[in-house]
Amino acid sequence: MSWKDITTNVSARILRQRDLPLVLKGLAWRLILFAVRCGRSNPISFALRPVVAHRSFRVAVGINLAVLAIFMAVYGPLPSFAGDNVGGQLEINVRSEGNVNLATIPAVQLPLSDFRITQGYFWYHPGIDMAAPTGTAVHPVMTGTVAEIDYGRFGYGNNVLLNHANGYGSRYAHLSKIEVTAGQTVTLDTEIGKVGSTGHSTGPHLHLEIYANGNPINPRGVLDLQ
Questions:
Q1: Is 130 exposed, middle or buried (0-12, 13-18, 19+ CB in 10 A)?
Q2: Which pLDDT score is estimated for 92?
Q3: According to the model, what pLDDT value does residue 102 have?
Q4: Which of 95, 132, 175, 219 is the most exposed place for a label (fewest CB within 10 A)?
Q5: Rounded CA gap, 22 and 112, in Å?
Q6: 188 within 8 A of 139, measured Cβ to Cβ
Q7: Distance (Å, whole) CA 127 – CA 211
């Protein structure tokens, strides 16, 4: 059992023993999960990663860069404000040869055929909750390989972690049943488990997390959910 599992289990046991309002217990649990996920990372940079990784942020940066490129192409380089006696040239090094490798997201699909999103993606909740009846079939969002299987009583409960191409990964938590094995190759048609309410859960739903190079990103952007 890893230190993350031990910390989560002990914290859950302590919270159950304390006579606190449910709202405070919920807030304390989310802070504990954030601290465990953060690990040795700087909390501020860890919390800002989802913002920087969000598709809207990247689109806004891309638009600004495109506008700047068009401006410079039409009007030339921006003038220098250092003074009349200071000048210089803008040197741009361009590679004449070479291949550019563009990493693209493989074909994706929704893990459930019918669901209702009950909780969205936040810095303290790095995934989305998709409510569905217990026993609903869960499929992978992309083809990949089963990297980890955990039958837990706390936190994620019964959950499956998949590795995908181009550094992507996905986790499916609170399952009532797991139907894959570690190391198994899964396709879009593979049923990896059933919706449940195991672990820290208030009702049957699928908690879905998606990662890019080990960092959680908003599943809405990958799955094109509004």
A1: buried
A2: 43
A3: 45
A4: 95
A5: 30
A6: yes
A7: 10
pTM score, two decimals? 0.56
In a domain? residue 70: no
Exposed, middle or buried: residue 103 (CB in 10 Å: 0-12, 13-18, 19+)? exposed
Do the beta carbons of residue 155 and residue 114 sit within 8 Å?
A: no
Q: Which is nearest to 162 in space by CA: 179, 176, 177, 141? A: 141
Give CA–CA dist 182/193, Å, rounded.
13
- What values do phi and psi take at 101, rounded to 5? -95, 115
Same domain, 14 and 112: no
In eight-state DSSP terms, residue 71 is H
**Structure-token pair, residue 186:** 């899964």
Q: How many domains does the chain have?
A: 2
The structure tokens listed for 4 are 């993350």
Question: What would the two tokens of residue 86 be?
Answer: 């200071």
- Alpha carbons 137 and 145: distance in angstroms, whole number: 18
- pLDDT value at position 135? 97
Averaged pLDDT, groups of 10, the chain, 226 residues long: 64 67 67 66 55 61 69 54 44 47 69 95 93 98 97 93 97 98 97 96 96 95 88
- The boundaries of the domain holding residue 15 are 3-38
Per DSSP, the three-state class of 166 is: helix
